[in-house]
Amino acid sequence: MIFGGFQQLSLIDYPGKICAIAFTIGCNFRCAFCHNKELVLPELIAKQPIITEDDILTFLKTRIGKLEALCITGGEPSLYDDLDKFLQKIKQLGLLIKLDTNGTNPTILSKILDAKLVDYIAMDIKAPLTTQDYNKITSVQVNLDNIKKSIELIKTKLSDYEFRTTVEPSLREQDILQIAKYLAPAKKYFLQEFRTGNTLNPLYNSMKGLSQDELEKIKDKIKDNFEQIGVR
User: Fold this and answer.
1) What string of DSSP letters covers 68-81?
2) In the chain, which ranges are E strands?
3) Average pLDDT of span 87-98
4) H helices of 98-227, where?
5) Exposed, middle or buried, 125 (CB in 10 Å: 0-12/13-18/19+)?
6) Reported pTM
7) Residue 48: what pLDDT?
């Protein structure tokens, strides 16, 4: 696996755990509101310093007993066929693993879930579960069946997980209601407020999404569908 970023300490990325964060290079989506364009666009990836598996493992070995977990995000980690092998190495260090994913590779997800190589998954739900909506938000052609398969895998094979939606400027209340209806029932769902700054599409830096107050009102309408729900 190839990484383009590594954060040695985080108190917020794995719920209730002290973790480090590894950022994989490459993504199969082109979401205009993405804040990690250096890990997504090939011309920017070429300028990034490369961080290897050995670099990460060497550091983690020095933090045994201090760190509790590793969060693997991106980019999109499930693009790597050897993801399971890397997770095995992390597990051998006695760390918990959180995986962030867009859900486009249910084959990889099924493999690592069956092998019990991941303890927590956060899956981004980009839009209502229609091909037209997903293609619009991600700016690519999406196999929606794969997204749906990943949702079911996570719900049925993992005890601790969350779904989350960044409410970017084109999403409205009715879109969130549709997403919640599809996901229900589920353990956790979080609405994430759209924020400007370093977006993949610079035009989005002058746009506004729903306010936190508006998101709180939507949250109250859908809260019965989830064990835990929140606004970030």
Assistant:
1) -EEEEESS-GGG-T
2) 2-10, 19-24, 51-52, 69-73, 96-101, 120-124, 161-167, 186-193, 226-231
3) 98
4) 106-114, 131-138, 144-157, 173-183, 212-222
5) buried
6) 0.97
7) 87
